[in-house]
Structure formats: C-alpha cells, structure tokens
Amino acid sequence: MADILIIDDDLVLSEMLVDQMMRLGHKAEMVNTLAEGLEKSKECFYDVVLLDVQLPDGNGLESLGHFKNTSSCPEVIIITGQGEADGAEKAVLSGAWGYIEKPHVIRELNLQLTRALQYRQEKMRVNKIPVALKRKNIIGSSPAINKCLDQVAQAAASDVSVLVAGATGTGKELFAKAIHENSSRCHKNFVVVDCAALPENLIESTLFGHVKGAFTGADREQNGLVKQADGGTLFLDEVGELPLNTQKKFLRLLQEHEYRPVGSSSQQYSDFRLVAATNRNLEECVSRDEFRDDLLFRLQAVTIKLPP
C-alpha cells in the first residue's frame, strides 16, 4: 500500500483518481491548490504525488522541485489538460517520474504508478534489482548496473525518448530491449535500425518506406521500419551516424509522428516510441556541426550512460 497525494483543481477528476487509488489498495488524499499541496507534502509522508500543471495559484511543473525537496521526496507524475508536443520531455527533465495528459489519465495511470512505486522501493534497498523488472541477458548487479536498471524502470513507465550511451560491446541494445519489454508496448514490435550499416542512399526508403516506381527497382510498395514500429518501439542503433539531411526529417517525425514514404504525396502516421543508442559523444558532434542540437534535445529526455 502506498500513500498518494492528488493536487488538481478538477474536483470530478480528483475524486475519480482517489477512487481508483483506493481500489488499488492505496491511501489517497486530494487538494485543489498548489499551496495546500506543498503544505501537505511538508507535513505528511507521500510515496507519489499526482500534480496538475495549471493550478489556481501557480504552475505545478515549475514547483516540482519543492516537492522533491520535502522529507519524503515523492515520485511526481504530472497530469495536464493542456498537452504540449514536448510536454513529457519537459516534465522528465524537470525531475518528474512521468507525464500524462488528462484525457488518458485513467487509462494510463496504473502502469506509471506501478513502475514509479517499483522504482521507489528499489531506491530504498541497496544493490538489489526489482523482481518485476525484465532484464533478459543483462548480467551483473554492480551499483553502476543497478543505476542503469533504475533508469530502465523509469523510462519504461512513460513514452519519452531515451538515449542509451556507451562504448561498443556494453550492451546498448539489451538495455533498449529491456525498456521495450517492461513498457506497455511490449506486445508490439521492437524494430532495430542499424544506422551505421545503412547505405546513405537507402536510409530514407528503409525508414519511411516507398511507393511502387519511386526509384529504379521499386517494383512494389514497401512499408518502412517506422511503419513496422507502429504501436511499438523504434530502436535507432548508432544514431550519430545518421546524415544531417536525414536528421532533419527525423526531427519532424519525432515532433509530429507523421512521415511521407519515398515517392508518395501523402502523409502517414506511426505511433512509435523511440529509443536511440550511440557510442559517440553527441554533444561534441553538435559542436562540430555533425549532429543537430534540436534533435539531440529530443532524443535525450532520458539518458542512460552504460558503464564500460
């Protein structure tokens, strides 16, 4: 059983969330202003805070640090009725566990709450891995590996983009697969794109697909890997090898999840979650104009740095 605090001025939604938490066996309280929420957090112990962004007396996201600095240091899940394209990235970068838009909060909350509580329990133990976390072929229980697995659990509970950084042979794909297998997308495809092995002239057709007659040899329509990842996870291995012109198109894909197959005049949509990996220092690549800084920002909502 966990202690949950709900801070939202939507009383109907708050009451629904209290009922949902109680059905799950948790204790839940609700307040409708930021000031009340902060006061409660200072007086009482909470495992998780469900925090609205737009409150009558302030912005929940901007106040997130105050909740993290209380004695219980709760995990915070942002809930908002005003979704932004980069809202999840902003929330995670600000220290939130997760981010849910209100139309989906009842449906999506259970998984995020479960993962947040597993992560919290893990923080209270020393050098032990949560039994519930699937970690196929990931060997070891050193503090460095356990820290990475904590991040896997956190990343798996949301749909934010993840960058896995590490030298060749450190198991970047294994960690990417673990994120997928512990997420709500685990029953859909995990699609791997080896960016370093793709000929530059085939990258776009491989990613986005093509229509019949788009180029010499295109004798039939073919779906790209982005389409195959619809509903699942798209893993870009060695993302630093993507050419700049493809990076620009991929940035737009991340922003809108829409793309145009080679030779087509119509847009298609793919609901994928992105995990990327690199053995390069992408910040240095940005300084050398080899990698787009806006794409890097999109990729690294969560960064997992693997030990050598």
From TrEMBL:
<dbReference type="GO" id="GO:0006355">
    <property type="term" value="P:regulation of DNA-templated transcription"/>
</dbReference>
<dbReference type="InterPro" id="IPR003593">
    <property type="entry name" value="AAA+_ATPase"/>
</dbReference>
<feature type="domain" description="Response regulatory">
    <location>
        <begin position="3"/>
        <end position="117"/>
    </location>
</feature>
<protein>
    <recommendedName>
        <fullName>Fis family transcriptional regulator</fullName>
    </recommendedName>
</protein>
<dbReference type="Pfam" id="PF00158">
    <property type="entry name" value="Sigma54_activat"/>
</dbReference>
<dbReference type="InterPro" id="IPR025943">
    <property type="entry name" value="Sigma_54_int_dom_ATP-bd_2"/>
</dbReference>
<keyword id="KW-0547">Nucleotide-binding</keyword>
<dbReference type="InterPro" id="IPR001789">
    <property type="entry name" value="Sig_transdc_resp-reg_receiver"/>
</dbReference>
<keyword id="KW-0597">Phosphoprotein</keyword>
<keyword id="KW-0067">ATP-binding</keyword>
<dbReference type="InterPro" id="IPR002078">
    <property type="entry name" value="Sigma_54_int"/>
</dbReference>
<dbReference type="GO" id="GO:0000160">
    <property type="term" value="P:phosphorelay signal transduction system"/>
</dbReference>
<dbReference type="Pfam" id="PF00072">
    <property type="entry name" value="Response_reg"/>
</dbReference>
<dbReference type="GO" id="GO:0005524">
    <property type="term" value="F:ATP binding"/>
</dbReference>
<feature type="modified residue" description="4-aspartylphosphate">
    <location>
        <position position="52"/>
    </location>
</feature>
<feature type="domain" description="Sigma-54 factor interaction">
    <location>
        <begin position="138"/>
        <end position="308"/>
    </location>
</feature>
